[in-house]
Amino acid sequence: MKIKIDKKVWLIVGIAVFVIALVFLVRLYSQQVNEQEQLRTSLTSRQTLLRKLTTDKETLEDQLEQAESLLSTSQAEFPESVESIEYGEDLFEIAHDHNVELTDLEPTVPTNIKAGAVTYSVGSFAVKVNGSIEDIIDFIDAIKTGDGFDLPWSAELESVNIEAGSGGTSATITLDIYAYKR
Q: From CA 155, how far away is CA 139, in angstroms rounded?
């Protein structure tokens, strides 16, 4: 038994296959267009983010450069500050060892003095102490001889002003401390 299919049926089947293929292609094309639009949007946002990050990076690099410059400047000044602190610690210790009360310590910023090939750091101090006259004189002698300095420093007394009164004895001492710089 042979079934004969009419040309109209073939035509309808052909049109149906064509319509199904066309619907499939349109749907596939629509998905591709949506995906391209999403990619464009994503690309635009990424490019915007890249420009912002590039600007931020340049700003941060400028800030880093400024911070490094400030650090270099601060490091250059730091040793002088440390020396002043160390001198002060030694002066307080010497005062304690000689039973005087160090009531005021006013340092100046150390300077460098070059003598031939050797560079010395010189810090000036105004020191005020209270105690007995004997203890103050012992304190002055200890500073003058360098007794009690933890590091190899030497002091040169510039002036000593001793005041004795009913409230006790006090002295104002102005001195320069010399330290060898390596």
A: 12
Residues 179, 109, 117, CA angle at the centre, nearest 5°?
Answer: 40
For 92, the token pair is 């307080």
Contact 177, 134 (CB under 8 A): no
pLDDT (average), residues 143-172: 79
SS3 (DSSP) at 15: helix
Tokens of residue 83, six digits: 């020396």
Is 94 in contact with 78 (CB distance < 8 Å)? no
Q: Specify the DSSP class assigned to residue 109.
A: -
Q: How many residues comprise the chain?
A: 182
pLDDT higher than 90, residue 24 = yes
Q: How many whole angstroms separate alpha carbon 149 and alpha carbon 147?
A: 6
Q: Which stretch of DSSP H or E encloses residue 19?
A: helix 7-97
Domains (ranges, CATH) in the chain? 78-181 (3.30.70.60)
How far, CA to CA in Å, does 12 sit from each of 17, 21, 23, 26?
9, 14, 16, 21
Distance CA 31, CA 24 (A): 11
* Residues paired with 127 in a beta bridge: 105, 173
Give the pLDDT confidence score for residue 80 in this predicted structure.
46
CA nearest to 103, candidates 81, 138, 128: 128
